[in-house]
Amino acid sequence: MDNARVYRMSFASVYPHYVAKVERKGHTKQELHTIIHWLTGYDEKALQQVIEKKVDFETFFAQAPQMNPNVSKITGLICGYRVEEIEDKLMQKVRYLDKLVDELAKGRAMDKILRK
To answer: Which of 21, 1, 8 has its CA nearest to residue 97?
Structure first.
């Protein structure tokens, strides 16, 4: 997929898919929010504003209050790529989020997902 196309996609358009994925596997939207808060620094109010304003992924990550300093601990494959080797920093952030959502859906313990 063209990276520019991903960056222009609104976070709000993908968010329901994240929710559906984790709920289908027996997890909650609140657990998903915990992951998003940990990764980006958005609080609940700011996250809701991002969704309501339909900001794109580029803006979502550009305006993130603070990326977690432990993001470098997120490793492994997502969509056939090793997240730690993705050179495009914005795409890497998108894939970090995808990886964390996958880990939650697969039942990984929250402490491990949050790299504690």
So the answer is: 21
Asked if 10 contacts 55 with a C-beta cutoff of 8 angstroms, the reply is yes
What is residue 94's predicted lDDT score, i.e. its pLDDT? 95
Question: Taking the domains of the chain in order of start, what are their residue ranges?
Answer: 3-113
C-alpha separations of 9 from 1, 33, 39, 61 in Å: 12, 19, 19, 12
pLDDT bin (cut points 50, 70, 90) of residue 79 is confident
Mean pLDDT over 65-91 rounds to 93
Counting beta carbons within 10 angstroms of the beta carbon of residue 4, is it exposed (0 to 12), middle (13 to 18) or buried (19 or more)? exposed
Instruction: Sort 67 into a burial class: Cβ within 10 Å, 0-12 / 13-18 / 19+.
Output: middle
d(CA 100, CA 14): 14
3 state DSSP class of 92: helix
Strand partners, 78: 81
Instruction: Please provide the CATH number assigned to the domain covering 3-113.
Output: 1.10.8.290
Residues ≥6 apart with Cβ < 8 Å to 72: 84
